[in-house]
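Person: Please comment on this record:
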Amino acid sequence: MTLSDFITIIQSQPDGVILLEGRRNIPVSDYEHATRLARSLAQRFPPIRFRSGNAEGADQAFSEGVAQVNASRLQVIAPYASHRKSFCYADAIYVTPDSLSRIQEDEIAYKTKEATPKNKGLVDGRTERRRLAAKAAYLIRDTMKVTGYSEDFRKPICALFYVDINDPMAGGTGHTIRVCEQEGVPVVFQNSWKDWIEEDVEQADGGNRSSASA
């Protein structure tokens, strides 16, 4: 996807939500790229909101970029309420699967199993075994980030991921990508969005920083 393609998606729903997330293991240089991109997008598209999953690595890198502009535009979906409390942004909006009604949770659990069938036993056993419930909460959270569950937490219009380019569908990130494909949410990996930084996103970022320092 090119930057122009991405802008066209935003223009179709200028008050939409962009999902930003990815692997926990991310080199320092890529961490900085992700932060810079998220900051630039938040500056350039003020009505857009952003969503992530509160994990270390790529999630944190993207979230930092948004928070540097306006943390209140950041929606964070954590697996449980006390998850990484020391990394919370005061103005960001935090929710967990506990926010779901039973009907909503059952629907999201179904979509979780559809996206990654090998986790069916884990998801089905979440109400019976505490150990399974803790693991299933992460999968439910990952699906919830994509499906949304209310007017305030709508399905994202696009998702930007930092992945293992050699195995992008691995782990929790791969599950989230599969849910995006299942839900018709366009996905973009860093081999595309890194190029955006060298295009006019970079110019918008530089312009805003120049204005701020004037």
Observations:
- Residues 209-214 have pLDDT under 50 and may be disordered.
- The longest helix spans residues 130-147.
- Strands lie at 17-22, 49-52, 74-77, 93-95, 158-162, 187-188.
